[in-house]
Amino acid sequence: MTYSVAIAAYNAAETISETLKSVLSQTVPPNEIIVVDDGSEDATAQIAREVSPDVTVLTQPNAGCGRACTRAIRATTSEIVATIDADDLWLPSKMQQQLDLLQASDVRTLAFAKHRQFHHGTADMTSGALRPGLTRSDLVFRRKVFEEVGPIFDPPGGRGDMVDWLARAREIGCPFKIIDDVLVMRRIIPGSLSYGRDATKDAGYLAVAHRAIQRRQERIKGSQDQ
């Protein structure tokens, strides 16, 4: 099974090279890697291009992680797509295990894995917290599922885009399967979009919850009108 990798990147010059090298080091290498540089103010795009000729870099004015990730996914050509944040890392057998899982599963299955957190700038990759990987960096899916669920929405403040997309996938009945192995290293880096608590950024979660309530109300109304 061939697959493509889609990456949204914004001001990721410190980490994008290491992320891409972890993708290129997979036991089953990708058919292509698409990086969308979302208006970075640093050398993200240049560094990504220099890592490998297998990396295609697209640039755009800053529009948000969701829009950049959507563009990257839509630029891929393989039936199967994997996504990763521009500061996280894959362990070498990640894609092999997830491709095996997808091949044995319903065509609408979303494949995930566990991840371990680690702090940027430290050599300790073994003692960080373990999490079930319902994040962009753990996700693998068939592109027809993406077209069914629709584009990734950028909430106010920027947080919650994948929470919203995964909720919509679950609402239309896509099975979620998580491999019970740590296959992703999730970087904790000060200043990143997901770092710490921030009232302005966290407003995105409220917007996502509101959208979910609206969709539920629309489903209820639709069933009552039938």
Automatic annotation (TrEMBL):
Which Pfam family would be a valid example here?
Glycos_transf_2
Domain Glycosyltransferase 2-like, chain residue ranges per copy = 4-107
Work out whether the entry's keyword set contains Transferase.
yes
**Transferase: present as a keyword of the record?**
yes
Picking any one GO molecular function of the record gives: transferase activity
Superkingdom of origin: Bacteria
Q: Which residues cross the membrane?
A: none
The alphabetized UniProt keywords are: Transferase
Q: Which PANTHER family match?
A: GLYCOSYL TRANSFERASE FAMILY 2, GLYCOSYLTRANSFERASE
This chain's protein is named Glycosyl transferase family 2
